[in-house]
Design goal:
The complex is a heterotrimer of chains A (283), B (583) and C (235).
Chain A (H helix, E strand, L loop, with lengths): L3 H32 L5 H20 L3 H25 L4 H23 L14 E4 L2 E4 H23 L1 H11 L1 H6 L4 H26 L11 H10 L5 H21 L5 H15 L5
Antiparallel strand pairs in A: 1-2
Chain B lengths: L1 H22 L7 H24 L9 H19 L3 H23 L7 H21 L8 E2 L12 H24 L2 H11 L1 H6 L4 H27 L1 E2 L1 H4 L3 H13 L6 H18 L3 H18 L4 H12 L24 E12 L2 E12 L3 E5 L6 H8 L7 E6 L2 E2 L5 H6 L2 E3 L12 H12 L5 H14 L15 H14 L4 E5 L7 H16 L3 E5 L3 H7 L2 E6 L2 E6 L1 H6 L1 H8 L1 H4 L1
Parallel strand pairs in B: 5-10, 5-11, 8-9, 9-10
Antiparallel strand pairs in B: 1-2, 3-4, 3-6, 6-7, 11-12
Chain C lengths: L2 E8 L7 E8 L4 E5 L6 H8 L7 E6 L2 E2 L13 E4 L11 H8 L3 H5 L1 H11 L1 H5 L10 H14 L4 E5 L7 H16 L3 E6 L2 H7 L2 E6 L2 E6 L1 H6 L1 H8 L2
Parallel strand pairs in C: 3-8, 3-9, 6-7, 7-8
Antiparallel strand pairs in C: 1-2, 1-4, 4-5, 9-10
Helix pairs in contact in C: 2-6, 4-6, 6-7
The chains are: A mainly alpha (283), B alpha/beta (583), C alpha/beta (235).
C-alpha cells in the first residue's frame, strides 16, 4: 500500500486531470442531452484546436490565450454549421453518431497530412510550474484549466437555469411542440447551443495543446472515458459532467497508484457498464 | 424452364467465382495479391458477421473488436503456449467468442431500454474492459504475443497462400451463413425485431432467444475471423487488436453496402478495402481515410439504407408497375355461424396496477366461441389495458386469464400469440422495412401452426386479398394510406389463424366511407367463425357489430349485455353523459 | 369574430382526422366542442394552436390568415393552448413551467404581475413553485398547465380535455377556473368529452363526430337534440 502522501498527491492529480474529462464532456453532454445529437467529432474539434494553438504558438509565437480568442469563435461557427447539416437532413441520434465519426476521421486525416503523425509538444515555461501546498504539488496549468472548466460549467448551468433561452432549450428538449406553442423557436436556439458545444471543444483544445503531447491518434484516446463521464454526469448537465469528470479522474489516479497504471481504463468503463445495467431513469 | 435457367444463373456464377478464387493462389501471382485478397475476405467476414446482429436485428454494436480480439488471443495463446495445431484453435476461438456474446446478451437483452446508442456505448465499454484485463493479466502482460514460431498449416505451398485460403473459406462460410439466416425463420424474426420489437413479440417471435442466437452467431464468426487474423499479423498486441477502427470500419462498410441485406456488408467491405488499398499503395493513406469519411457522410445522408437496397429499389422502379386494385371490399358474407357454448376466453378477477395507478380492478369476462364482444367505456376506463394484459404486452398484477381452457396469465407475449391470440394496434405498427406480403407472411409464420413456406405464402396472399390489399403485396407500408395500414393490421392478425382476435380501435381515424367498408370487413371476419373482442369508440359501429357489449368504468366491469339494452341503461348513459342527461 | 374556422381539413399520420369543420369564437365567449373519443377534437384544437398543418380550408385569428404562420409564432398572436394530458415540462420546476408561458418578450415584461395572478388563482402552486412539475398530483399539474397558458396573456385559451383523469371534485374546480379565465377577458375554446360540464359553462357549443361538425347551437337546444346521444351511445 502506498503512503498517505502518495495517495493524497494521486488524488489531487486525478481530480485536476479529471477536469479535462469534464471540460471535454460538457459540450458533448449539452448536444446529446438537449439536442439528441451524439457528437463524436467533439474530440476531433478539440484536437484540431490544439494543433492550431500549437502551430500559432511555435511558428508565430502567438500566446495561447490570443490563439484561443481566435480558435473558440471558429469552433462556434463549425458547431453551428454542423447543426445546419443535422437539421437539413433530419438526422437521428444513431446517424448523428456515424456522421460525426466520419467527420472526426476526416479531421484526423487532415491533421495527419498537415502535421504528420509525429508527436508534437508545445513547450512553455508555465507548463512545468507548480504550487507547493504542504507535502503536495499542484501544477499551475492543470489548476488553471480546472478553474476555467468550473467557471464554464457553473456559468452554463446558470445560463440553462436562469435565462429564458436556457429554459426554452430545456423545455424544447422535453417537448418541442409545446415549447413551440409558447413561442420557443427551437431551431434558432439549437444553432446557438451546437455552436457553444463546439466552442467548448476549442477551449478544451487550448489546454490540450499546453498540457498534453499531441498526436493525431490521440483524438480517440479519451473517447471512452469522456462518454462514461457524460453519462455518469447525466445528459445535458454541465455541472454533472464536470463533477463526474473529476470523480473518474480521481478514481483512475487512485487505481494507478494502488494497482498499476494500466488498470486505469477499467475504472471508468466498469462504472459506465454498471450504470447502464442499473438502467436509471435519467439516461 | 426459362424461370429455372434464370434462377440457376446466379448460382452458376457464384460456384465459378468460388472455384476461381479458391484456385487463385496456385496461379503463381506475387504474394502481394494473396495478402490483398486476404484483407478483402477478412473485412467481408467481419462486416457480415457484425450485420447479423446489428444490421438484421438493429442492435447496433460498437464492440465487435471485443469478439474479434477474443478470437485472436485464443488462437495466439493456444498455439504459442500449448502448441495446439492452428486449425483446431479456430473453432475454439469461435466458441469462446460466441460464449462471451451469449453471456453479454443474456444480461443486456433483459433491459428493454438498452437499445440504440446506449447499446452501442455498452458494447464499446465491454471492449475496453476486456482489452484492459488482457493487458494486465499473464495472458499478454502488456508485451504482446509473438506468433513467429507457430507452424502455419501447409494447406498450400506458400504460407501466404495458406492464410489466403483460410480467410477465403471463412469468408464463403460467413456469406453462406448470412444468406441462410436472412432466408430463414430466424432472419425473419430478426428483421421484425429490427422494425418493432414489441410487435414482433406479440406476433409470436421469441425475441429474447433470437437476439441471443444472433449475438452468438455474430460474435462466433468474429472470433473465428480473429483466430485466422492472428496468423496474418503474427505479433499480437492489445493496442493493435482492440483499436476503435475495427468496429468503426465494420459499421461503415455495412452501412454503405446495406446492413439489412446479407450481401450488403460484403459490397461495402470490398469497396472500402479496395479504395483504402489504392491510396495506401499510392502513398496517400491519409487522403484515403478522409475520402472514406466523406463517402460515409454522403451515403448516410443520401442512401441511409445502403447501396444494395437502393439498387433494388431502382430496379423495382424500372419494372412496370403492377396493376392496382382498389381497396374496396365486397366479400360474400356467408350466414353468420351461431355463437357456441364453449368459452374461448375466461378472464377472472384481473387487476393491473401501474405504480400507484389502478388501471384494472377485478375484471371478470367470458367470451364464447364465435362471439363478438364490444369493449367500451370512457377515456381511461381500462379498455386498451385489458387488451394489453390479455395479449401479454403487460404482465398481470392479479387474477387469471385462460384461452381455450389453458392458463396464459403468466406466459410471455410470444407464447400467448402461439396459443392463438392475435391483436391489432390502434395506431398501425407494421414492420416498416418489410413489404405488405412479408408483413403478413411473418405474422403467419410465427403466429400459426408450423406449415411449409409455400402454404404460408398462399395463406398470406389469401388474407391480403380478403382485406382488399391485392396488388399492393410488394409495397412498403409507408406507401399505404391509413385505411390500408389498418387493414394490413387485420391481415396480419388473421394470418395467424387466431382462436381469439383482439381489435383495438380499428375504425379510429377513418373517414365515414372507410368506416362502412371496415365494418363490412369485420362482419366478414366474424362470418368465418372468429371470436372477437374489440375496443371501439364509434358507438354506431359497436351497436351494429357486437353480440354483447362490455362497459368498463374506472377499471371495473360496469355493465354487460346486449348492445341496445346496455347502451340505454340509465347507469351507462350517466357515465357517458352525466346523471342529469340520463334522467 | 376573433377565431374563424371554415371547412377545415386536417389529417396527420395515424391520428383521427378532421374532414371539413367550421366554427367561430367571439371575444368574451366560451365555446365548447363536444364529441366522443376519436371524433377528432384534439386534432382540431392542435391545428388551431398551430401544432398541426392545415390541409385545406380557412383558419383566421383576428382577421389574420394563420395557415402559413409558423408554429412558434402562434403564441405571439395571442393563442395559448392547455394541451390534452397537460404535457408539462416535467423535469422543470413549477415556476419554470409558468415562466415558459411568458417566453415571448411582450408577455415577459409582465412576468411578475402574471405570476401573482396565477398564484392568486392557484395558491397551492406558490407553495410548490420550486418542485419539479412531474412530482405534482394530476389536479395540480392541470393548474400548472392552465397557469402556463395564462402567463402568455392570451386573447384566446384553448382547453383540450381539461377534466381528463381528474377526480370529480377537482373537475368542478377546473370548470370554475375556465369561467374565471373568460371573465378575465380571454375567449375560451373548450374541447371536452364530459358533455354536461362542457355544456354547463358554454355560451355556444358544437358537436363533433367522426371529424365533422354534426350540430351546433346554444347548450339548452343541443341537449334536446338526438345528435349527442347518438354520437356517444350509438342508440
Amino acid at each position: 500500500m502506498p503512503s498517505a502522501t502518495l495517495l493524497g498527491q494521486a488524488l489531487i492529480s486525478g481530480v485536476l486531470a479529471g477536469g479535462m474529462y469534464g471540460l471535454l464532456a460538457m459540450g458533448l453532454s449539452l448536444s446529446w442531452g438537449l439536442l439528441r445529437l451524439v457528437n463524436l467529432s467533439h474530440f476531433a474539434l478539440a484536437f484540431l484546436s490544439a494543433y492550431i494553438v500549437y502551430e500559432l504558438g511555435t511558428k508565430y509565437g502567438v500566446a495561447p490565450w490570443w490563439s484561443a480568442a481566435m480558435v473558440v469563435p471558429l469552433m462556434f461557427a463549425v458547431g453551428a454549421s454542423q447543426y445546419w447539416l443535422f437539421d437539413r437532413f433530419r438526422v437521428n441520434e444513431l446517424a448523428s453518431l456515424l456522421i460525426t465519426f466520419s467527420f472526426a476521421v476526416i479531421v484526423e486525416a487532415g491533421i495527419q497530412i498537415y502535421w504528420t503523425a509525429d508527436y508534437r509538444r508545445f513547450e512553455t515555461h508555465y507548463a512545468t510550474e507548480s504550487i507547493k501546498a504542504g507535502p503536495f504539488f499542484i501544477p499551475v496549468l492543470d489548476l488553471t484549466m480546472c478553474i476555467v472548466a468550473s467557471v464554464l460549467a457553473w456559468g452554463t448551468w446558470m445560463w440553462l437555469r436562469k435565462t429564458y433561452v436556457g429554459k426554452g432549450l430545456r423545455a424544447a428538449a422535453e417537448d418541442a411542440d409545446i415549447a413551440a406553442a409558447y413561442g420557443v423557436d427551437h431551431r434558432k436556439l439549437a444553432y446557438i447551443l451546437s455552436g457553444i458545444g463546439a466552442a467548448y471543444a476549442g477551449i478544451a483544445g487550448t489546454f490540450i495543446a499546453l498540457i498534453a503531447t499531441l498526436a493525431p491518434a490521440q483524438i480517440w484516446a479519451w473517447l471512452g472515458v469522456v462518454f462514461a463521464v457524460v453519462i455518469i454526469g447525466r445528459l445535458g448537465n454541465p455541472m454533472g459532467a464536470l463533477l463526474a469528470g473529476m470523480l473518474i479522474g480521481a478514481s483512475e489516479s487512485l487505481a494507478m497508484a494502488v494497482l498499476s497504471p494500466a488498470w486505469a481504463p477499467v475504472v471508468s468503463f466498469s462504472v459506465l457498464i454498471v450504470i447502464l445495467l442499473w438502467d436509471p431513469e435519467w439516461l | 424452364m426459362a424461370v429455372n435457367a434464370a434462377a440457376a444463373l446466379p448460382r452458376l456464377v457464384a460456384v465459378l467465382a468460388v472455384a476461381a478464387f479458391a484456385a487463385l493462389p496456385m496461379a503463381g501471382l506475387p504474394a502481394f495479391y494473396d495478402s490483398f485478397f486476404y484483407l478483402v475476405f477478412f473485412w467481408i467476414s467481419l462486416a457480415t458477421s457484425w450485420a447479423i446482429l446489428s444490421g438484421f436485428a438493429g442492435y447496433f454494436s460498437l464492440g465487435h473488436a471485443a469478439f474479434f480480439g477474443i478470437g485472436m488471443y485464443t488462437t495466439a495463446v493456444l498455439t504459442t503456449w500449448f502448441e495446439v495445431p492452428v486449425l483446431l484453435t479456430i473453432p475454439a476461438a469461435a466458441g469462446l467468442a460466441a460464449l462471451f456474446g451469449v453471456v453479454i446478451g443474456a444480461v443486456v437483452f433483459r433491459l428493454r431500454r438498452l437499445r440504440g446508442e446506449l447499446f452501442a456505448l455498452l458494447t464499446l465499454s465491454v471492449t475496453f474492459v476486456i482489452a484492459t484485463i488482457i493487458l494486465n493479466t499473464p495472458i499478454d502482460g502488456g508485451a504482446g504475443i509473438f506468433m513467429s514460431a507457430v507452424p502455419i498449416p501447409n494447406l498450400l505451398p506458400t504460407p501466404t497462400g495458406s492464410i489466403y485460403l483460410m480467410g477465403f473459406v471463412l469468408c464463403v462460410a460467413t456469406l453462406v451463413i448470412a444468406w441462410k439466416v436472412a432466408h430463414s425463420r430466424l432472419g425473419m424474426g430478426l428483421y421484425a425485431i429490427h422494425d418493432d420489437e414489441d410487435v414482433a413479440e406479440s406476433k409470436g417471435v421469441p425475441t429474447f432467444r433470437y437476439k441471443i442466437a444472433a449475438f452468438a452467431l455474430s460474435a462466433g464468426i468474429a472470433g473465428a475471423v480473429g483466430g485466422v487474423h492472428a496468423l496474418y499479423v503474427g505479433f499480437i498486441t492489445v493496442a493493435g487488436t482492440f483499436e476503435l477502427t475495427v468496429p468503426l470500419f465494420v459499421v461503415l462498410m455495412s452501412v454503405i453496402g446495406g446492413a439489412r441485406h446479407w450481401f450488403g456488408p460484403a459490397v461495402g467491405a470490398t469497396f472500402i478495402t479496395v479504395l483504402l488499398y489504392a491510396f495506401i499503395s499510392g502513398g496517400e493513406a491519409m487522403v484515403g481515410r478522409a475520402i472514406v469519411g466523406v463517402i460515409l457522410i454522403l451515403s448516410i445522408l443520401w442512401l441511409p439504407d445502403g447501396v444494395i437496397p437502393a439498387a433494388k429499389a431502382w430496379f423495382a422502379r424500372r419494372r412496370p408497375a403492377p396493376k392496382r386494385h382498389s381497396a374496396e371490399v365486397a366479400p360474400v358474407v356467408p350466414a353468420a355461424r351461431p355463437v357456441g357454448d364453449r368459452n374461448v376466453l375466461e378472464v377472472r378477477g384481473v387487476t393491473k396496477r401501474f405504480g400507484g395507478l389502478q388501471a384494472l380492478s377485478g375484471v371478470d369476462l367470458d367470451v364464447r366461441e364465435g362471439e363478438i364482444v364490444g369493449l367500451v367505456g370512457p377515456n381511461g376506463s381500462g379498455k386498451t389495458t385489458l387488451i394489453n394484459v390479455i395479449s401479454g404486452h403487460y404482465p398481470l398484477s392479479g387474477g387469471t386469464i385462460a384461452v381455450d381452457g389453458a392458463q396464459i396469465g403468466t406466459l410471455s407475449a410470444h407464447e400467448i400469440a402461439r396459443r392463438g391470440v392475435a391483436r391489432t394496434y390502434q395506431i398501425p405498427r407494421p414492420f416498416t422495412n418489410m413489404t405488405v406480403l412479408e408483413n403478413v407472411v411473418a405474422a403467419a409464420t410465427f403466429g400459426g401452426a408450423p406449415r411449409p413456406a409455400r402454404e404460408i405464402r398462399d395463406e398470406a396472399l389469401h388474407w391480403i386479398g380478403f382485406t382488399g390489399l391485392s396488388g399492393k403485396e410488394e409495397m412498403l407500408p409507408a406507401a399505404l394510406n391509413l385505411h390500408e395500414r389498418k387493414f394490413l393490421e387485420l391481415a396480419r392478425a388473421l394470418a395467424a389463424r387466431p382462436k381469439l382476435l383482439l381489435l383495438d380501435e380499428v375504425l379510429s381515424g377513418l373517414n365515414p366511407a372507410e368506416v362502412d367498408n371496415a365494418i363490412r370487413l369485420v362482419r366478414a371476419i366474424r362470418a368465418q367463425g372468429a371470436t372477437i373482442v374489440f375496443v371501439e369508440h364509434l358507438m354506431r359501429a359497436v351497436v351494429e357489430l357486437s353480440d354483447r357489449v362490455a362497459v368498463l368504468n374506472e377499471g371495473k366491469l360496469f355493465a354487460l349485455g346486449a348492445p341496445r339494452e346496455v347502451m340505454r341503461d340509465p347507469r351507462v348513459v350517466s357515465i357517458y353523459l352525466g346523471k342529469a342527461y340520463a334522467a | 369574430m376573433l377565431l374563424e374556422v371554415r371547412d377545415l381539413h386536417i389529417g396527420y399520420g395515424d391520428a383521427p382526422a378532421v374532414w371539413g369543420a367550421s366554427l367561430d369564437v367571439d371575444a368574451g365567449e366560451i365555446v365548447s366542442v363536444i364529441g366522443p373519443n376519436g371524433a377528432g377534437k384534439t386534432t382540431l384544437i392542435n391545428a388551431i394552436a398551430g401544432l398541426l398543418r392545415v390541409r385545406q380550408g380557412e383558419l383566421r385569428f383576428d382577421g389574420a390568415d394563420m395557415r402559413h404562420v409558423k408554429a412558434h409564432e402562434f403564441c405571439a398572436h395571442g393563442i395559448a393552448l392547455v394541451p390534452e394530458g397537460r404535457r408539462l415540462f416535467v423535469k422543470m420546476s413549477v415556476e419554470e413551467n409558468l415562466e415558459l408561458g411568458c417566453y415571448l418578450p411582450a408577455a415577459r415584461a409582465a412576468r411578475a404581475e402574471s405570476l401573482e395572478r396565477v398564484y392568486g388563482l392557484f395558491p397551492i402552486l406558490r407553495q410548490k413553485r420550486l418542485q419539479p412539475a412531474g412530482e405534482l398530483s394530476g389536479g395540480q399539474q392541470q393548474m400548472v398547465a392552465i397557469g402556463r397558458a395564462l402567463m402568455a396573456r392570451p386573447r384566446i385559451v384553448l382547453f383540450d380535455e381539461p377534466s381528463l383523469g381528474l377526480a370529480p371534485a377537482i373537475v368542478d374546480d377546473m370548470f370554475d377556473i375556465i369561467v374565471r379565465v373568460r371573465d378575465s377577458g380571454a375567449a375560451v375554446l373548450l374541447v371536452e368529452q364530459n358533455v354536461l360540464k362542457a355544456l354547463g359553462v358554454a355560451d355556444r357549443a358544437y358537436v363533433l363526430e367522426q371529424g365533422r361538425i354534426m350540430a351546433h347551437g346554444v347548450p339548452d337546444e343541443l341537449m334536446t337534440q338526438p345528435h349527442i346521444r347518438e354520437a356517444y351511445l350509438g342508440v
